[in-house]
Design a protein that fits this description.
Length: 230
């Protein structure tokens, strides 16, 4: 990653999450990730969709989860209307309390700015994920500031399991562009709707490198729990 300035931004966008190896490779080793590379029946790239109108807190297609961290609490509204597979996957991890006592293990203060978590315990032990899911980045949702997206292996767009990240800037470089592993992008499946000041606070934490992990907070920032509240 330290030679990123020597390569193209497009390539960097595909590679910047390459350090996410443990949780992303979870599940049954003999069961391949979903092989669908685009919308069902599509003959080419999906047309960008218009932003969805604001949703009521009681909308069942847009459940809300509360994320309690050591720096404070924030809420995320999920979008099961646009990213049904991804939201179902995320809520399954939430229900299983997978995210309890995990950490935000990477903070990027340069473009693309984001915070990454969901796959490591406080002692940096990797948590095993389940079977990878289909990438729904073609759903028209963009990696705008405060949106939440799934991470995946750079060479396999259909490899997301439990790692997720929150965008701290409008990271257009991470959006869906084409049906290649490098161009498929990262699926947005929700947005922070309360507590953005906590998200910003996390994003401003000092970082250092620890073993194979880069840009890890000097002071551990733990996710105490994630619970569905609506």
């Amino acid at each position: 990653m330290r030679h990123a300035l020597k390569i193209s931004l497009a390539y960097f966008a595909a590679m910047f999450l390459a350090a996410v190896v443990g949780c992303q490779r979870g599940g049954d080793a003999n069961q391949p990730a979903a092989a669908v590379n685009g919308p069902a029946g599509a003959g080419g790239p999906a047309s960008p969709a218009e932003p969805a109108p604001p949703k009521s807190d009681q909308d069942p297609s847009h459940p809300i989860v509360q994320v309690e961290t050591t720096l404070g609490t924030f809420k995320i509204r999920l979008d099961a209307e646009r990213a049904a597979i991804t939201v179902d996957n995320f809520l399954n991890y939430v229900a299983a309390k997978h995210y309890d006592d995990t950490i935000f293990h990477e903070i990027r203060s340069e473009y693309p700015k984001l915070i990454l978590g969901g796959g490591y315990a406080a002692n940096f032990t990797e948590k095993k994920g389940r079977t990878p899911i289909r990438n729904e980045a073609h759903n028209g949702l963009k990696n705008r500031r405060y949106t939440v997206a799934m991470a995946h292996q750079p060479d396999n767009e259909d490899s997301a399991t439990c790692h997720f990240f929150i965008n701290l800037s409008d990271n257009t470089v991470l959006d869906y562009k084409d049906r290649t592993p490098q161009g498929y992008g990262y699926c947005v499946f929700g947005e922070v709707v309360e507590g953005v000041d906590i998200v910003d606070k996390i994003g401003q934490a000092p970082v250092h490198d620890v073993g194979k992990l880069e840009r890890t907070p000097v002071e551990t920032i733990a996710i105490k729990s994630i619970r569905r509240i609506k």
